Amino acid sequence: MGKELVLIHGWDPRFYSKTLNLDAPEPGVAWSDRIELIDLLKSKYEVRFFDLPGFCGKPEPVKEFYDIEDFSSELNDWISKEKIKPKAIIGYSFGGAVALNYKIHYKTEVPVILISPALSRKESTFSNIGNKSKGLVPSFAREQLKAVYQSIFSKYYRLGSAFIKKSYDHIVRRDTSIDLKQVSQDSVLLIYGSKDTSTPWQNVESLVKKHGVNYVLFDGGHDIGETNGKDIFEEIDKFLK
Predict the structure, then answer these.
(1) Global pTM?
(2) Which residue, 192, 237, 185, is CA-closest to 211?
């Protein structure tokens, strides 16, 4: 392995290719709120940014939607094409789900560091209602109501293209925390904010502790990359040693 760190950003509507409307944004634009963390990482490692298809000016694939495995496949193709031998892969939020899937599916020994990873999400009000209404409301009607609900209440869905909407609809239903059972404890580091309400630590806590997965918990929310940059860098550096 070299000194390269591969960074995968999260699912942020600000960086949808459609939203940015730029042919060639600056590399790492999706990490622009985490300057302290990025600068510290760059001071010791070579940082490479992997942009998800449909984000950061990267074209959307000619497919109706992508699931996590498709994004993971794109990451694998990119690493192979660029001939990168990563020292580690760092995924933020949804990028963490992609990194974990990549590690398991492609059986790589490269360690992964998952910051506020979207492995298990907070259940929405609509999901609650939808689960209780199964059998009472026809499936086609539930799908129509769900699309209306997400268009009103979810910027992740509302601001997206048809590809982004369909992809989001698939990935947001997935709970991939169980995949943590398939990795060796010393090859994964989880970094969570104790007050994260988007991808709550409490959803994975018992599984992580039961299987002895490395984790660090900071006093913060989903945005710990902005609020705890120096602390996160120190934990990453320590883990990689």
Answers:
(1) 0.88
(2) 185
Residues 75-111: b if buried by 16+ CB within 10 A, e if exposed:
beeebeeeebebbbbbbbbbbbbbbbbbbbbeeeebb
Residue type, 28: G
How far apart CA 117 and CA 74 sit, in angstroms, is: 19
Torsion of CA 97, 100, 102, 103, to 10 degrees: 180
Phi, then psi, of 23 in degrees rounded to 5: -75, -40
Q: How confident is the model at residue 131 (pLDDT cuts 50, 70, 90)?
A: very low
**Cβ atoms 87, 9 nearer than 8 A:** no
Residue 34 three-state SS: coil
Which amino acid belongs to residue 226?
E
pLDDT digits (tens, 9 = 90+) for 5-48: 999 999 999 999 988 876 667 889 999 999 999 999 999 999 99
Token digits for 161? 């293209």
CA atoms within 13 A on the CB side of 109: 3
